[in-house]
Amino acid sequence: MTQNPFAPGAKRPSVTEGVFSREEVALANRNSGALLETLGLEITPTGTHYLLNHFDVPVLDEAAHVLSFEGAFDAPFRLTMDEIRALPEMTRPVTLECAGNGRAGVSPRCFSMPWMYEAVGTSKWAGTPLAPLLERAQPRSGVQDFAFLGADFGFDKGQPHYFGRSLTPDQIADLDVMLVWGMNGQPLLPQHGAPLRIIVPGWYGMASVKWLTTITALTERYQGFQQVQTYRLRKNEDDPGTPVTTIRVKSLMKPPGVPDWVTRQRWLQAGRVTLEGRAWSGGGVPITKVEVRLGDTWQDAELTGRPDTYAWTGWRIDWDATPGVFDLACRATDANGNTQPLEAPFDMAGFANNSVHRVRVHVAEAAT
Amino acid sequence: MTQNPFAPGAKRPSVTEGVFSREEVALANRNSGALLETLGLEITPTGTHYLLNHFDVPVLDEAAHVLSFEGAFDAPFRLTMDEIRALPEMTRPVTLECAGNGRAGVSPRCFSMPWMYEAVGTSKWAGTPLAPLLERAQPRSGVQDFAFLGADFGFDKGQPHYFGRSLTPDQIADLDVMLVWGMNGQPLLPQHGAPLRIIVPGWYGMASVKWLTTITALTERYQGFQQVQTYRLRKNEDDPGTPVTTIRVKSLMKPPGVPDWVTRQRWLQAGRVTLEGRAWSGGGVPITKVEVRLGDTWQDAELTGRPDTYAWTGWRIDWDATPGVFDLACRATDANGNTQPLEAPFDMAGFANNSVHRVRVHVAEAAT
After folding, report:
1. β partners of residue A217
2. CA quadruple B188, B192, B197, B202: dihedral positive or negative?
3. Partner B contacted by A28 (CB < 8 A)
4. B153 and B216 within one domain
5. Residue B7 confidence (pLDDT)
6. Which of A45, A357, B111, B266 has its CA 20 to 30 A from that of B68?
């Protein structure tokens, strides 16, 4: 580690295929994933929702916190947390997924958080719709972007910045963006953006800025690091790429049976077992089909519904398990006709890998 | 991965020094660590307390949950959660640390959860003292062990078992073991053992059995897998070893300045900076000294107190940072005269590595 990560133009550390470095494991230790065994639940238990925080979690004083509407507004204003909580309240279960989920399955891979399958979760977010507040601030006619700035600050590729993202006026009109202060019936936790964040339903998690301090109306496009220099789907170094936006269709299985502690492979006895899991897609698009690979064939699972337009859909299927070793898998299709690929799509930064979830299961003879 | 982890006598996967496997990263993704930037807080924010769960988290029905006192008791009984919550209530901040914390720094290392520094946390646990309940059940005179059994089940080294641990009557008499149903003013979360667990203050975390279903009085020593086949300090394959019990003296630093996203190295401007962190030892033994390496010399930090006998102690020290690259470190000493080593002590399973915490800091010229 002789490289200085704070030098302008600093590059990410290199990676070795097939193995992971100490720095990648350190990222995995601090950015926590969901527990797949809780996929039987519609709402992810508090404290097990995935966390991907670029910089340090700011511990903010809620009593002093202010949200500022700035820039090209005709009627800019500032709101305290008391004022924000007095606005019309709504609660909505929303499924969030990290854009980097599945990165460890992409080859060749890049240096970043090495997610396998677990950077996804569904919480009941409490807050207020954002659109009426933007309207109240009266954006000027030439506004091209609304920039959302967090209080979290650090370096990436040698560039210091607050985490910030933007949405265009057209995107705001299409999306049900929420200003959020609560989660699962409790105040927002520090690591999830307390006291205030946004939730951009249907998009990958990078859009849902935490520790929100400022919303700036811009008469040009926002050029923040996290908007233009990363979170782009790119096939090679020369590819300018396209922005990461809505979540790709995906599904996960609650691993059946019981685990081996270290390999997480599964063991169960022969006989009928009900497999279940969750499936989701971006932009509120419904799931129309989930197939499960039982042995050599894909079979349709039963869909058991979703609690909200932007939340995942439950699925289940019975399996008559016979002795042997199986690589079970699940594959979802959405109403736009998109189906999960069997192999990871390549992306330079390992973004948006929605290939199928595989679970190795050892089926033993039934006890007599 | 052709090995069958469910075969009797199955061995753990092998490891390669200096790099980590996909299976190790998968463990790191599900077993989450503390966020070191929250070390400025006395209580670890809910949802960021470290998690080390051997098997799947059981999602238990609190209304149906019963704790059974079984075995060599003259007056065994069963308690519902309502009955347990009606017992005398106490709340206590207790610092817990995973016995495997620091494993990734031990060389050669073994295959298990690759913790760096972050498997530690302090929560306010609410419950009732265990000792009066054991007394009420009237253990017979020949009792040698009380076995605590959880509802979590799985395999390790090919052996199926519920997670279980034991304490002797003498240990129970010495330790302030709590039966716990609450955490930080809320009901216990599923991943922390809901609806009921024990907390064994001053011991490494493996003793604090989650999802507690049964306390069995035994007239022989308990032979459960997690008691006799693991959680032993061993120097080589032939070493029968000694049990892992109380926590070794240790300290961590809240990393100063701001991070680089991927390497977690730190950046700050030259000038005075206050470094702070936490230090703890096992068995309620107080911390008497924390030294911090600033450049080439170790300097004594100020101790800022602890909220309870079994909770960590705060420390702070001012540093006049000059431009350059520094590997800061902190080192605690307890009232028994134990001091953290500079290098990781070797253990076959990577247990109880309490070597000093190092933080790489890049100090830039102060902005003018």
Report:
1. A71, A146
2. negative
3. yes
4. yes
5. 94
6. A45
Contacts A104 to B, Cβ<8 Å = 22, 25
Question: Per-residue pLDDT tens for B167-202?
Answer: 999 999 999 999 999 999 999 999 999 999 999 999
Q: How confident is the model at residue B1 (pLDDT cuts 50, 70, 90)?
A: very low
- DSSP string over B146-178: EEEEEEEEEEETTEEEEEEEEE-HHHHHHS--E
Domain CATH number, residue A187? 3.90.420.10
Same domain, A33 and A111: yes
Reported as a single tens digit per residue, the pLDDT across B276-324 is 999 999 999 999 999 999 988 999 999 999 999 999 999 999 999 999 9
Point out which residues pair with B332 in neighbouring strands. Answer: B290
Residues 6+ positions from A223 with CB-CB distance below 8 Å: none
- CB-nearest partner of B111 from A29, A262, A364: A262
CA distances from B317 to B269, B300, B355 (A): 17, 8, 20
Closest Cβ–Cβ partner in B59, B115, B255 for A29: B115
Distance in angstroms (rounded) separating the CA atoms of residues B92 and B90: 7
Best mutation target among A32, A156, A184 (most B Cβ atoms within 10 Å) is A32
| Interface with A, mutate which of B35, B112, B261, B327 (most A CBs under 10 A) | B261
Alpha helices in chain A (DSSP H): 22-30, 81-85, 131-137, 169-174, 225-228
Least CA distance to B157: which residue of chain A? A260
d(CA A241, CA A335): 26
Residue A207 sits in the same domain as residue A142: yes
Q: Please give the ipTM for the structure prediction.
A: 0.95
Specify the pLDDT at position B295: 86
Tokens read off for B295: 């450049």
Could you tell me the residue range of the domain that residue B347 belongs to? 250-364
A101 CB-near residues (< 8 Å, 6+ apart): A50, A115, A117, A118, A119, A120, A353
pLDDT of residue A2: 56
* CA separation for the pair A143, A168 (Å, rounded): 8
Distance (Å) from the alpha carbon of A285 to chain B's nearest alpha carbon: 28
Say if residue B74 is in the same domain as residue B153: yes
* In a shared domain, residues B61 and B165: yes
Phi, psi (deg, nearest 5) at residue A303: -90, 130
Residue pointed to by tokens 């502690």? A261
Q: Which residues pair with B221 in a beta bridge?
A: none
Q: Do B197 and B67 lie in a common domain?
A: yes
The residue type at A182: G
Q: At residue A29, what is the residue type?
A: N
